[in-house]
What we know:
6 helices, about 120 residues
Amino acid sequence: MSNVHMAWTRTICGRIKSDxxxxxxxxxxxxxxxxxxxxxxAKIEQTAQAIFDARAKYPDCSLADxxxxxxxxxxxRKAHQENDKAVxxxxxxxxxxxxxxxxxxxxxxxxxxxxxx
Length: 117
């Protein structure tokens, strides 16, 4: 789960109260994936594994514990930041690209995908 996908999720998802209602049909299946190079794909795989490795250091913690914004372990936060950076690069986004710019670019990609079908 990258910041790129979360930007899409925050825009597309329905909600039940304040919680996201993540639907494979509306959110996941319509998410415009980039076409990373083999090197970019390898980097994303490496950074994703680092997230799993950081989580594994805390076997007695729930995901709720690990992802508490105030107490998130520093190595897990860093692993997510590195993953976000790798995904941003694969999409061709600069590190200072705003969420609204990301969503606008994703909608352009989505529009191209829909025109092909």
